[in-house]
Amino acid sequence: MENLIKNKIGFCDSGVGGLTVYSKFRNILDTEDCIFFGDLKNSPYGNKTKEQLIGYSRKVFDFFKSKSVKAVVMACNTTSAQTYPVIKNDYGFKIYPIIQSCAKIIAGLNVERLGIFATASTINSGVYEKEIHKYNPEMIIYPQSCPEWVNIVESNTQNDPDKIEIIKKDLDKMMKNNPQKIILGCTHYPYLTDILSKFAPKEMFIDPAEFFVDYIKEDLKKSGLLNPQTTKGSEEFYVSANPDEFKIASKMFYQVDKVEVV
Ligand code: DGL
């Protein structure tokens, strides 16, 4: 066990979205050594087939295995929905998928009408509803895909007037359902909170990373996997392409100074 607890924790997503989870994790637990992987070569994930996504996940998880990680945080709703159920037993380390890890907490929110914004792949999988209804079958859920949002975030163009118009149009469609809260069910979407909040109350939007990072910390503790070191943990950032775009787009959530392409 002593050996394993000092190993690194991996974080993965198609791109900068995973940093919305990673930054919150570092805020509550900065003594872990971490590796972040952004699969920019294959981004966006949200319009890919399940088979393609499984292939991407296997490559990323093989990379983490080569780094002897003790756990991997799937900071990506799309792979949590599509590939986690397929690969979950194939690696000898813990995997934390964002949807399945947060579903119980979301189901326990005092909300009758819940909107979910996510990628087309996540929405089509129906995994959000399935996981939430396991704990709260009464909750009325309005799933809606926002196919253009990930590219808007990755290209850092969210403040362009035409992009604001796209975001507003998607939000208007959701608001017709009169939801009490809306889950930002893609880790890229918290980059758009300021824009969304121009058109609806900020408190309406829930970033599941808020609960996700507490869940991971508690589980690492329970599993005897918390690194006992008291100094700040190391960080490594990798992407499969476009390191400069990654650095620029990441700024709102995390200052990444050094990125390696693998
Ligand atoms: N950020 C990821 C998610 O949470 C993937 C988005 C994408 O690449 O389409 O679903």
Keywords:
Rossmann fold, 2 domains, six-stranded parallel beta sheet, four-stranded parallel beta sheet, 13 helices, 10 strands, 44% helix, 16% strand, binds D-glutamic acid
For the terminal residues, how far apart are their CA atoms? 29 Å
Given this structure, which CATH class of the largest domain is correct? Alpha Beta
Number of helices, counting only DSSP H or I runs of 4 residues or more = 13
Shape field: globular
What does this structure look like?
The chain has 262 residues and is of the alpha/beta class. The protein has two domains: 2-97 and 210-261, 3-Layer(aba) Sandwich (Rossmann fold); 101-208, Rossmann fold (3-Layer(aba) Sandwich). The chain has 13 helices and ten strands. The protein has helices at residues 2-5, 18-28, 50-66, 77-82, 84-87, 98-107, 120-125, 127-135, 149-154, 161-175, 193-196, 209-222, 243-250, and strands at 9-13, 34-38, 71-74, 94-97, 113-118, 140-145, 181-184, 205-206, 235-239, 260-261. It has a six-stranded parallel β-sheet, sandwiched between helices. A four-stranded parallel β-sheet has the order 6-5-7-8. Strand 1 (9-13), helix 2 and strand 2 form a beta-alpha-beta unit. Helix 6 packs across helix 8 and helix 6 (98-107) crosses helix 12. The longest helix is centred in the N-terminal third of the chain and has 17 residues, at 50-66. The structure holds D-glutamic acid (DGL).
